[in-house]
Amino acid sequence: MARNALPSPSPAASPALLRAGALAILLLLHPLGPSAAAAGHDYFDALHKSILFFEGQRSGRLPPDQRVGWRHDSALHDGATAGVDLTGGYYDAGDNVKFGFPMAFTTTLLSWSVIDFGRTMGPELRNAVRAVRWATDYLLKATAVPGVVYVQVGDAFSDHNCWERPEDMDTLRTVYRIDRSHPGSDVAGETAAALAAASIVFRSRDPGYSRLLLDRAVRVFAFADEYRGAYSGSLRRAVCPFYCDVNGYQDELLWAAVWLHKASRRRLYREYIMRNEVVLHAGDTINEFGWDNKHAGINILISKEVLMGRADSFRSFQANADGFICSVLPGISHPQVQYSPGGLIFKAGGSNMQHVTSLSFLLLAYSNYLSHANKAVPCGGTSASPALLRQLAKRQVDYILGDNPLGMSYMVGYGARYPQRIHHRASSLPSVRAHPARIGCKAGSRYFLSPDPNPNLLVGAVVGGPNVTDAFPDSRPFFQESEPTTYINAPLVGLLGYFSAHP
């Protein structure tokens, strides 16, 4: 039952808020609270669980090596009404709809996690790569017809009217697509970015598959760029208010071009980025990064090239990236980025942990790029070092894992205390193994309303999290706080991969 995040304006950070050497002190203004753990965390265990979560979100026919044993095959006829095979992929959250926009963003961030932090994932790298491939196999099906992208399977209103297991699903599995007459540059652009990013993941592991992904990314991007428009304009009733494009499609076009340039090194994508930097608003909304807004990610990703001395003509992107960093630092951030008393990043809108993990991922990635170039971020009268950015990202991860005023891990199955009543149909209903008989649409309501813990542990799921006062209702009806999503976990995989090796 996912909801759109609110867009945020991004005024520049005010130098008046800064004082020499103030940043290190500002971090101390947000103590973790009396319940904070002092012994540290098992980041590798958390990494293992954060990847395992994706197996619990799988749709389609499950493989023999499926590790989440209480899940079974589901949605085996997806696409049939449109004459195509759209089985597979991921359910985005606690519902049973396959939304293409957040699924593609999840794929891009999983791929980026592997590209930047895979070398520190140890034996979990194999599982991370498998999580990427489960998504890309589906995205290849969704883009198999030239000039068409299948962007959603399932009627969200029908689905949200029921509380039933994916294995029992009898809600409408309507297929939604974009094409030349009904454009969707946002979802097509994100899909192209996902395919291009994943092509890098498989470049040495499976060269043939990598070439297929890159060729498809090229084709999907060309379609997205030529037939411009927001997919919520073409498919408003289907995608709004769930994954409605609030931010516009321009950032996805630039985001796709950046990943295509990174994957292919073709000059035409470099020229596209240079030609469209202003037209596609590269510097807009710098303090936001998620499935609907890619601007901060674009600037961080391009800045790596600048910091490595390979793209001096892109220095304006580095200035944008620096502005993003300054906008999210404690005590400097503008009103759209707050910190809870316990030190958690908080942004208005639903499912706050999506902001925590995505923004923290960018802080960590940029910190590594800056370190290699021996640079820091100028913020008015002082500067933010790479070590400071890493410290802030680590504090967000530690908060998620239990260093917070409630002493609660917000990752299911990690630590001694974690959410027991997450807003997730498959987790909250008896498994097919425990209850073979079908549970109908409304028959599941009693499980939704029950005060009992969920019978199936969705290990690794990170929920939407506490509110701005660090309070958390462990209750299914509070979906903004208690629902997990794939795009919360995807950037967390990279963060945990890094901290597994650099605790």
Keywords, please?
45% helix; 5% strand; mainly alpha; disordered N terminus; globular; 503 residues
Estimate the mean pLDDT confidence: 91
**N to C succession of SSEs:** HHEHHEHEHHHHHHHHEEHEEHHHHH
Q: Tally the helices: what do you get?
A: 19
The residue fraction in helices comes out at 40-55%
User: How many beta-strand elements?
Assistant: 7
- What's the overall geometry? globular
Rg on CA atoms, Å? 21 Å
β-strand amount? under 5%
Low-confidence stretches: 1-26, 32-38
Strand order in space, largest sheet: 1-2-3
Gap between N and C termini = 35 Å
Report the sheet with the most strands, covering strand number, pairing sense and barrel closure.
3 strands, antiparallel
Structural class: mainly alpha
Explain what you see.
The chain is mainly alpha-helical. It is about 45% helix and about 5% strand. The chain has 19 helices and seven strands. The strands form three sheets. A three-stranded antiparallel β-sheet has the order 1-2-3. A two-stranded antiparallel ribbon has the order 4-5. It has a two-stranded antiparallel sheet with strand order 6-7. Helix 10 (about 250-265) packs parallel to helix 12 (about 295-305). The longest helix has 21 residues, at about 355-375. The protein starts with about 20 loop residues before the first helix and ends with a helix. The relative contact order is 0.17. Mean pLDDT is about 90; it is low at about 1-25 and about 30-40.
